[in-house]
Amino acid sequence: MDLDVFVNAHRAEWDRLDHLLRRGRRLTGEEADELVELYQRTATHLSLVQSSAPDAALIARLTQLVARARSTVTGARRASWRDATRFLTAGFPAAVHRSRHWWIPTAVLSTLLAVIIGWWIGTHPEVQAAIAAPDELRRLTSPGGEYETYYSSHPAASFAAQVWTNNARAAAMCLVLGAFLGIPVIWILFVNVLNLGVGIGLMSSAGRLDVFLGLILPHGLLELTAVFVAAGTGLRLGWTVIDPGPYSRRSALAQQGRAAIGMAIGLALILFVSGVIEGFVTPSGLPTWTRIAIGIAAEAAFLVYVHVLGGRASRAGDRGDIDVSERSAELPVAA
After folding, report:
1. Tens of pLDDT along 222-253?
2. Are 219 and 282 in contact (CB under 8 A)?
């Protein structure tokens, strides 16, 4: 989009909207209708500029106009089911889609690290000996051992609830603690990767890697993806502290932080699904291929959800933030 042409084509509408807003309540019926129409057009213009030509100064002006117009047209509003629907169909998937350049590399590097740790442990008996005594290793890895019975150690419903709570807490910590330059996020992520790598290494050394993968993949694909999304978003928030872009550090952190809070809610729902799978599918008597197929289907559904709905909302200018009318107008502090 040619920004200069776009501005020249619509500047008169924006100026007219600003003029009507300055007049406040002294509007005729026709002018009130005109204000509503100009508000809707300007909101569309803002979305187009955000997605196609992100000029900071122009976005700041249009954001301020839309916020003022929204306040004039609609006044105070209450949350509704429409807001929840919009969050699930646009806001949350858009936030995940927009942060993909952070969480996809995080997922790839973490998976590679887990495989490397697993290979190192599985091929070095001295490392295995440092982890636990031989008898304890046998209790962990033998048929009917702790790696297998872990998933059926409690009633399915309570186990699913416990898993969901723990994973949702870890994801929320990644999102919230990202503001501390991302350092706590790296530690949380490393602990998860280390646990996975140890399981791979010990079970492969016992010749039972296929059993381990049959237990971890049904729920682990979706669960780890949610953790990677949270970690990648937390790292992105940490980078915002270092490089806030054209806005002040406070404004940039507020924007990313609001999106992160929304993602914490969305990821809790995703982790609820993985918890249900872990509690009811993983320890079930279904064939291994069936359990893995269920895990792959859940993972594929999430990725399609993010790519299709999230990509569409992201291209329309949705950032997973609150509505433009509810944000404070922010002026850029750098070009």
Report:
1. 999 999 999 999 998 888 888 877 667 777 77
2. yes
